[in-house]
Amino acid sequence: MYSNDLIRGTLRTIILKLLSEQDSMYGYEMTQLVRERTKDKIVITEGALYPLLHQLEAEGVVTTESVSIGKRVRKYYKLTKPGKKVAREKVSEFDEFLHTMQILLDLKPI
Amino acid sequence: MELSEEQIVFIRNDLQQRGIVDPDLGDDLLDHLCCMVEVRPETSFDDAYREVMKAFGEHEFVSIQRETEQLIVLTKNKTMTTTLRISGIGAAFFLLVGSLFKVMHWPGAGASFILGAFLLVVLFLPITFIMRYKTADTGNRSMLLNIIGAACGIFLAGGITFKMFHWPMANIMYYTGIALMLFGYVPVYVISVYKNSLNKVNAFSTVILIIAVSGILFLANNANSERVNQEYRNSLMTEQQQALALQQRVQQIAKQDSVRKTQMEQVLQNVALIRSAEEKIVLALEGPGATIPSVGNMGNRSIPLEILSKDGTTSFTAVTQAAANSGITLKEEEWMGLPSGILLQKLAQLRTEMLLKSI
Q1: Out of B8, B28, B76, whose CB is closest to A70?
Q2: Does residue B32 belong to the interface with chain A, where contact is any CB pair within 8 Å?
Q3: Number of domains in chain A
Q4: Which of B27, B35, B68 sits opposite A28 (nearest CB)?
Q5: In this structure, is residue A52 part of a structural domain?
Q6: What does the pLDDT profile of chain B (359 residues) look like in tens digits?
Q7: Residues B334, B316: Cα–Cα separation, whole Å
């Protein structure tokens, strides 16, 4: 598992990327999908995830849809139209960042 | 494990008890916890729930809620945060430039300083207060602290600005700021911090720091006014003595020289008129019985020229006329709105000039 500092800066990008792939997701689903794909190397904590999701909602990047499941409500998060653009920008920014880091740290290309 | 309705309600209540009041976040967390419990290998709900909670930790829930609130406040108040940044940088910049220009006696110091103080008092401090209030942890004391803190800043900054421009009430504002800091901020801070702070050493040093700063601010102002007053009284005295010495010489000439007698007496009469104008200013400033050298820091007060014509014996027009008799032209705009101390000095200098011309 990577340190929290490393994950914190990339969390927004990760979430936006996930949401741009899937039509809509709920919080727990996101944490599980990230765990699966990274083979437990990146674990998103609830403490980081939900404040971010609510912030993205306030920014108008995502919207929510509530679905009742018995006594509980599941909130599905979905990218808005401007949100999709933000997601693309974030991912390509991160791509550039990776290249820069490769050069900077003299790493072999992936 | 499939959760029953009672178990879901149980988790919901538990979240509420742990301080989650935001319904939106509550829904998210409830669903999340349910999902976590459902995938636990334990067969009993109680065991599974205990394990899930262990993974979370005690304070986690409230801190998630606080962070969410803070992020949303910051996002929703983007304009405010931008204004805060710009006004903060602007205030610091213009105050520094203003102070530098003032020290160097360059033009534009006053305008720059006043712009900086305006940004600080009207934008930066109130917004800081509002933002802090919105993102503050719950508790009335921290809000009270913010209010007192913002008021302190406004009074101190206002007081200093007023002082620079010799406007009235400067000292009252300045000392109110210091008093608020000492007798308002410190006690509230001590009470709130000693009740719930983990780091009491830090709190202690903060209190000492505040008291020390208040002391320095108080002394600095006192020492400075004392020094300014002293310098001002000295120069007033010099002007007065100079004018008086000249006046005696002119009186002597009038006695000895019968040819120039009428002319000299004329000048002396004009000088006496100006002298009585000065006395009228002193009377207005300090009350009956005061003498010119006793004028204290009230000399900072700017007084309207109309005060001269209050009882009809003198007026600025009469002063102008008296000066004109000696061939000196007074421009009214140069005399308007001056601090009374400067006004007194200028009048004494005028007497000296008139007397010198006559000799």
Answers
A1: B8
A2: yes
A3: 1
A4: B35
A5: yes
A6: 788 888 999 999 998 888 888 888 999 999 999 999 988 888 888 889 988 888 877 667 888 888 888 888 878 777 888 888 899 999 999 988 988 887 887 888 888 888 888 888 888 888 887 777 776 655 556 778 888 888 898 898 888 888 777 777 888 899 999 999 999 988 888 887 766 656 667 777 788 888 888 888 888 777 777 777 777 778 888 888 889 999 998 888 888 888 888 888 888 988 888 888 888 887 777 777 666 656 655 455 566 667 776 666 677 888 888 888 888 888 877 777 677 777 888 888 899 998 888 87
A7: 12
Containing domain of residue A25, as a range? Answer: 4-105
For residue A9, the domain's CATH number is 1.10.10.10
On whether residue A79 sits in a domain, the answer given is yes
The tokens of B358 are what? 């006559």
Q: Say whether B25 and A75 touch across the interface (CB within 8 A).
A: no
Give the 3-state DSSP-derived string for B246-309, with helices as H, strands as E and coil as C: HHHHHHHHHHHCCCCHHHHHHHHHHHHHHHHHHHHHHHHHHCCCCCHHHCCHHHHCECCHHHHH
Partner-chain contact B71 A59, CB within 8 Å: no
ipTM field = 0.88
Put simply, whether B75 touches A (Cβ < 8 Å) is yes
Asked if the structure places residue A49 within a domain, the reply is: yes
Q: Where are the domains of chain B?
A: 5-66, 78-196, 228-358
A75: phi then psi, degrees, rounded to nearest 5: -105, 120
- Closest CA relative to residue B3, chosen from A69, A50, A45: A69
Assess if residue A110 is contained within a domain. no
